[in-house]
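Sample intake sheet
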Amino acid sequence: MSAARRSKAFRTTMTHRAAFPSLGRKDRAVRCSLTIAVMLTAGLAMAPAASAVTRPACRLDPVSFRSPTQPLDHALRHFTDRTHCPVLIDPSLLTGRESQPLNGVFEPAQALKMLIGRNDLEFVRGQDGYLVHPVVYHPAQHMRLTD
C-alpha cells in the first residue's frame, strides 16, 4: 500500500471514529450503514419541501377554457394543465367516454362538472385536487369484505 493510500485510509478511519466514538474498529459495516441511513433520511426529509415549492397550487379562481368534444382522458389532462388541479380517476372509467365541449371562463369545479357531462360520473374536491367516481357502483366495482 502506498503512503498516499495509507494516509487516505487513516483519515477515513479517523473521520468515522470521530463521528462514532463509541463504536470499535471492527464495527466498520455498522458505522457505514448508520452514515448511509442518516444521509438518506436527510435527503428524504428535504424532498417533500423541494417538491412543494415547485408544484403550483390548485387554482380556485375562474379559468378560460376552449375545449372541443374529445376523449374524456384528454379533456381531464387539459383540465389539469389549465387549473393545476390533479384529477384522480380509475382508468377503466375513461374507456369509450367523451367529454362535453367547454368554451368560456369557468371556476374549476364548474368546468369539471361540464366536462364530465352525462357520463354517470361525479366528483369530490379534495385538498389538492379532485376524485372522480361513478354515480352508481356496479357489483364488480364493490370490494367484498365478508369473503
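Comment: The chain has four helices and five strands. The first strand starts at residue 63 and ends at 67.
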